[in-house]
Amino acid sequence: MELRQLEYFVAVTEEASFTRAAARLHVAQPGVSAQIRQLERELGQPLLDRSGRTVRLTEVGAAVLPYARAALAAVQGARLTVDELTGLLRGRVTIGTIDWSRALDLPGILAGFHRDHPNVEITVTQDDSASLAASLRAGAIDLAFLSLGGAEPEGLDTQVVVEHPLHAAVGLDHELAGRPAVALASLGGRDLISLPRGTGLRTVLDEACAAAGVRPRIAFEAGDPTVLAQLAALGLGVAILPESAAEPYADRLHTMPVVRPKLYGRIALAWRAEGPRNPAARALITRARDWLRNAPPAPVP
């Protein structure tokens, strides 16, 4: 019995197809079929039912699968341990981010890490903050830049990258235009323009409104703060956003801080509280934290 046979068996099981498994493993399909037939001959029982449109496990195959996965995991763990002890990093890390903002300088962090550890494969994925936090807890990603609400996310450790006050932006002919600030209570009953649920800034707004007894009326949602500014400039409502997102439209917008209470948005680096099992991920978290401490980020664009 060879590890390659177990790897092929697990891949076919997960893909429910010899063709997809071969593509995933970057080998020819006949080679996958031959190795699994050899494994079945050694065990004396069929592991896969090939009679249907999709490949399914036999009863014996279902019993063998956990042992195959455990054997592959043990070998991978041994390799990672040796790599860590010898100072050689390899493997894969996945980073989640809400955007490619200047405040994150994610390209700069990744460039330096890649120069020092060229054998580590890095994947970057984008999503909203709630989804990124869930993916971190599930172990689907190793670290993430996300926007925080009022409470710290459960099961995660964080390091704040940037904190900025939230502003209200309105068109120049809006009745609120000209005010130096606007109280949160004054926004009740008005058409608001906001980021969607699942984002940190929307969580801050919703939590503050709930605490103040204000019922927000969200007229428009958009995932990009600059789009919120554009909608407000068209007179469609009051946009809640970082002041910097409204700056390109200063000739068409009046911006003012939201007060009583003041609202703040925060972008943070986050990772699982118990730490990732992957040495490469641990090294990247350390690199990112050091980078952020020693190189203050630019303002949020």
TrEMBL record:
<dbReference type="Pfam" id="PF00126">
    <property type="entry name" value="HTH_1"/>
</dbReference>
<dbReference type="InterPro" id="IPR036390">
    <property type="entry name" value="WH_DNA-bd_sf"/>
</dbReference>
<keyword id="KW-0805">Transcription regulation</keyword>
<dbReference type="InterPro" id="IPR036388">
    <property type="entry name" value="WH-like_DNA-bd_sf"/>
</dbReference>
<dbReference type="InterPro" id="IPR005119">
    <property type="entry name" value="LysR_subst-bd"/>
</dbReference>
<dbReference type="Pfam" id="PF03466">
    <property type="entry name" value="LysR_substrate"/>
</dbReference>
<dbReference type="InterPro" id="IPR000847">
    <property type="entry name" value="LysR_HTH_N"/>
</dbReference>
<comment type="similarity">
    <text>Belongs to the LysR transcriptional regulatory family.</text>
</comment>
<keyword id="KW-0238">DNA-binding</keyword>
<feature type="domain" description="HTH lysR-type">
    <location>
        <begin position="1"/>
        <end position="58"/>
    </location>
</feature>
<keyword id="KW-0804">Transcription</keyword>
<protein>
    <submittedName>
        <fullName>LysR family transcriptional regulator</fullName>
    </submittedName>
</protein>
<dbReference type="InterPro" id="IPR050950">
    <property type="entry name" value="HTH-type_LysR_regulators"/>
</dbReference>
